[in-house]
Amino acid sequence: STMPPLLASIANAGRHGVLVKSATVMEQIGRADLVAFDKTGTLTQGEPRVAEVEPEAGHTAEEILAWAAAAERNSEHPLARAICAHADQRRVAPQPVEDFVSLPGVGVSATVDGERVRVERAPADPEGPASTQVIVSVNEQVRGRITLTDTLRPEAARTVEQVGALTTRPVHLLTGDNAATAAHVAGATGIDRVHAALLPQDKAALVKEQEEAGAQVLLVGDGVNDAPAMAAATTGVAMGRRGSDLALDTADAIVVRDDLSTLPRLIALSRRARRFVI
Ligand code: ADP
Ligand code: MG
Is there a catalytic annotation at residue 38? Predict the structure, then answer.
């Protein structure tokens, strides 16, 4: 072909389902020597399901779901969608909501029928089950807990192995979720550098720390909570299908086809193009 190599590889990446935003990005991707993955929606499908609703004494599961679904209705988080879908399925009646506030990496709060409802992450319990638990509180009082489970992407372990082989530094896992769930996903995918219970700014700080130590970080994520870390990384890659608008805007490249195995292919494509350029 008569196309310049970087442009040809951008076109090629596009055919494989990855949108690369510029020639500079295409070139940078191949320089990555450390790949870091977000967990929820990136290594996992990002389609969690409600496994259990546990009300405190004096409350019913339906009440907990009614509060939680109302507070979560305006959130685009995968956990929010799962809670709302579950409430619908159980025909829990929708309630009026005001003053919705999203706290990225933490949860949501809203006024439901005059009361302040919060749905947020439970304190990390390293002995706890490998699932995500959120607490539902009303006017600062815990009223119940909802347990959600997500499934690993079928290509996750193989992708981690392949990017690990293409890079000189160990693969990292960065998540806002609890340590037990993070350890479960890390074990299943063969990642041994695991960082759990991170706020969005903690993810960014970890990336900066690695970059200051000389690493060229390629961070893969999907959420609003990953945007600061994507911006801090040499290269930010967003999972496109269910990715949040902020993640898609901040990312340097977008995995349009919902398949992680495009990632090692992308790194290889960039390296091949650079051999021609340099
Ligand atoms: P990850 O880094 O794995 O993608 P997030 O940073 O989005 O996860 O979320 C971290 C934790 O914060 C979740 O595991 C959950 O406990 C809590 N959380 C975040 N958003 C919500 C929400 N909309 N509703 C309830 N809990 C939430
Ligand atoms: Mg995520």
Answer: yes
Residue in 43, 121, 184, 201 to alter for ligand 1 test, most ligand atoms within 8 A of Cβ = 121
Output the CA 58–ligand 2 centroid distance in Å.
34
- The protein residue whose alpha carbon is closest to atom 9 in ligand 1 is 105
Q: Is the pTM of this model over 0.90?
A: no
Give the residue range(s) of CATH 3.40.50.1000 domains in the chain. Answer: 5-45+151-277
Distances (CA, A) of 155 to 18, 74, 101, 114, 158: 16, 31, 35, 46, 6
CA trace torsion 226, 229, 231, 236 (10° rounding): -70
ipTM above 0.90, yes or no: yes
Query: Please, what CATH class does the domain formed by 5-45+151-277 belong to?
Result: alpha beta
